[in-house]
Specification:
Length: 237
């Protein structure tokens, strides 16, 4: 009687049991597939970031080999590539921080301070303070950019963000060299310098485009103003 009862019950419930098992299997498979997909995407993004960083460093190796004079001319070339006009390179001491001047594509006055320091160095707050005192007061800059081949100290970066000076550290310079426009990098001020990410305004993605500007030329050489190289500047290799 017991076996007969079980058989009768099974005939009634087996479709539901099978359905529950199938739902469980499908749910487990879906969870596994989603987890695998997320892990694959994360690994791909990490690999892509690593490749981009490596490519940027390969480009920056050419910049590191420049003299400070060639670096200033190269920054001017990047400005022209991005549509800036009336771009002039000072190329001399006593320029009060205006190594490169010109006009943004929309007509705003652009003033750039260039520092060709060794990659492991950092731009101190004192250098930033000097540029703050001249960029707008002496040169009437609408857009003031401090370009360096290294990073900035936290204090220097804080001053830049507070006073709307674009601190273009090594990572942002690498993106500029590889094709991102100056206009697209300006809102990223204060981000990506190895400190906590923050931005002066809402950060927008760097609208990268294929680099069309001239590639760096010239052999490695001394970096620094006329006479002995300045502190922290790259020395002859």
């Amino acid at each position: 009687m017991t076996l007969l009862a079980l058989a009768l019950v099974w005939k009634t419930v087996w479709p539901y049991v099978v359905a529950v098992v199938l739902v469980g299997l499908l749910g487990g498979a879906g969870w596994w597939l989603r987890r695998t997909h997320l892990r694959t995407v994360a690994e791909h993004r990490a690999w892509q970031t690593e490749e981009e960083n490596a490519a940027r460093e390969r480009s920056m190796a050419e910049v590191d080999a420049m003299t400070w004079q060639r670096f200033e001319r190269y920054v001017a070339e990047l400005c022209r590539r991005d549509g800036c006009t009336q771009v002039v390179v000072s190329g001399k001491s006593g320029d009060l921080g205006a190594d490169v001047v010109g006009r943004m594509p929309d007509g705003r006055r652009l003033v750039i301070q260039c520092k060709h320091y060794a990659p492991h160095r950092t731009v101190p707050s004192g250098d930033m303070q000097k540029f703050l005192g001249t960029a707008k007061a002496e040169h009437a800059a609408d857009v003031a950019v401090f370009v360096a081949t290294c990073g900035f100290t936290r204090e220097a970066e804080r001053l830049a963000v507070k006073h709307e000076i674009v601190a273009m550290h090594r990572n942002l310079l690498g993106a500029w060299v590889r094709g991102s426009t100056l206009e697209s990098l300006i809102p990223l001020n204060g981000a990506g310098n190895g400190h906590r990410t923050r931005s002066l305004r809402d950060a927008r993605g760097t609208a990268a485009r294929p680099a069309t500007g001239p590639r760096p030329q010239g052999p490695p050489g001394q970096s620094g103003r006329s006479g002995a190289p300045g502190p922290g500047h790259t020395r002859p290799r």
